[in-house]
Amino acid sequence: MKIVLIGATGIIGKAVSQELHDHEVINVGFIGGDYQVDIENRASIAALFKEVGYVDAVISTTGLIEFAPLNELTIEQFQTTVNNKILGHINLFQIAKPYIKQGGSITFTSGYVAQNPMPGSSAVSLVNAALDAFVKAAALDLGDSLHINTVSPRFVKETMLLMGMNSETDISAADTAKAYRHSIEGQETGQSFDVVDYIN
User: Fold this and answer.
1) Which residues fall within 8 angstroms of residue 87, CB to CB, at 6 or more apart?
2) Phi then psi for 19, rounded to 5 degrees?
3) Residues 8 and 28 sit within 8 Å (Cβ to Cβ)
4) Can you tell me the distance from the alpha carbon of 8 to that of 27, in angstroms, rounded to the nearest whole number?
5) Buried/exposed code over 36-51 (b: 16+ C-beta within 10 A; e: otherwise)
6) Cβ(36)–Cβ(30) under 8 Å?
7) What is the rounded CA–CA span in Å between residue 136 and residue 158?
8) CA torsion sign, 139 to 144 to 148 to 153?
9) What are the mean pLDDT values of the chain's consecutive 10-residue runs (200 residues total)?
10) Listing from the earlier edge strand, what are the strands of the sheet with 192-194?
11) Cα dihedral angle (97, 111, 8, 161), rounded to 10 degrees?
């Protein structure tokens, strides 16, 4: 399976690339990777897919988000989060769709705080829930032509360690990556896959 993985240079992205080692993975980053893309720039996405051609699946683990207490978040921070995580992925969906083979898949990354918010997550919960809702609705229009889902990670152990936080109960990036395999290799659509359901 030929897969474009956007966000491949991040913690989750690297783990997904490793998990899918038995497929042909094209690693795409904002700066690093085999190719570069800015999902807020439609011309950048178009140039990427013109170069890589037809694929079986697209995965995105990318997304700029602002995590801060509600009374500290500015409208600009909300706009950054919405423009990248929601509108950036709508750009990606619209431009990548003609390059995904019939019956292929596209998988976005939402997150646990979509349905389980916490202090400081208002902007992040907003966009993650929006992505989950989008794939549910989009699946109704797409039918069997394209499977579209989100993966909903919990807090990733490696990120928590970098932040100096207690990571004993968190899930590793490698375990998180297993949900992405399920998304691209299965036939389900319009779903949000909670990573805890795919840990062996």
Assistant:
1) 40
2) -60, -35
3) yes
4) 5
5) ebebeeeebbeebbee
6) yes
7) 30
8) positive
9) 96 94 97 95 98 98 90 94 96 98 97 89 94 98 96 70 56 90 96 90
10) 35-36, 24-29, 2-6, 55-60, 100-109, 146-152, 192-194
11) 180
Q: What angle do CA 142, 175, 184 make, to 5 degrees?
A: 20
Q: Tokens in use for 120? A: 């400081």
Looking at the DSSP assignment, which residues form a beta bridge with residue 104?
A: 146
Q: Which two tokens stand for residue 96?
A: 């990548």
Where does the chain show beta strands of DSSP type E? 2-6, 24-29, 35-36, 55-60, 100-109, 146-152, 192-194
C-beta atoms surrounding 61 within 10 Å:
26
Record the pTM: 0.93
Question: What would the two tokens of residue 44 be?
Answer: 């950048």
